[in-house]
Specification:
Layout lengths: L11 E8 L6 E10 L4 E10 L5 H12 L4 E7 L2 E2 L3 E2 L2 H8 L3 E5 L7 H7 L4 H10 L4 E4 L5 E7 L3 H10 L8 H15 L1
Parallel strand pairs: 1-4, 4-7
Antiparallel strand pairs: 1-2, 2-3, 5-6, 7-9, 8-9
Helix pairs in contact: 1-2, 3-4
Length: 189
């Protein structure tokens, strides 16, 4: 298992974000390799099923397709994506062996009602899956913005330091912003 080496200047991370239409069966997942000095160094694409349960495995597959040993962390924009397709940060870390961070931008609190409305027949199963993902922790960035994270393979302090480095302004880490722009471009093409 690798650690975050924040003392190094050009560590690279894989940032993954999604885009989809409400009538889509699959969302577009876009991964961008970006160094912590914000230089883009590669891309990878994937898909996750809307209301499915394949997001975690697809993210692992995207990382493996790259076949690069210089990626020091993996970060996702969201922990529940593609209309309740849940990202298991611990499983990703346990499988690929690099620090893994799931980032969200608001404290969504309880998702009970939303899960119940989308999955009336599988409500209990989805709720259990969500609760098994664990709690998120609030991070206050130097920019003054709050993020909420689930992380494995690093400490909360390391996670915060990394997020401060790659978030020059606003609430969205730059690698995740670039990944989201790519996912949107692929979706509309």
């Amino acid at each position: 298992m690798r650690r975050l080496h924040l003392e190094k200047k050009g560590i690279r991370g894989l940032a993954i974000a999604e885009s989809f239409r409400q009538d889509s069966e699959k969302s577009v997942l876009a991964g961008v390799i970006v160094s912590n000095d914000l230089v883009v160094d590669g891309f990878v694409l994937g898909n996750a099923t809307i209301k499915g349960d394949d997001a975690t495995d697809e993210i692992i597959s995207m990382y493996q397709k790259l076949d690069r040993n210089d990626i020091c962390y993996l970060m996702t924009s969201g922990i529940v994506i593609s209309l309740y397709n849940m990202v298991d940060v611990k499983k990703i870390y346990d499988t690929i062996g690099i620090p893994t961070i799931g980032v969200t931008y608001s404290d969504s609190g309880s998702l009970d009602d939303a899960i119940k409305s989308h999955f009336p027949d599988d409500y209990e199963k989805k709720l259990i899956q969500y609760k098994e993902l664990g709690d998120r922790e609030k991070v206050l960035l130097k920019s003054g913005n709050d993020l909420f994270v689930r992380y494995e393979g690093c400490t909360l302090t390391e996670c915060t330091q990394l997020l401060d480095r790659i978030t020059p302004s606003g609430p969205t880490p730059e690698p995740l912003r670039i990944a989201h722009l790519l996912a949107k471009a692929v979706l509309i093409s």
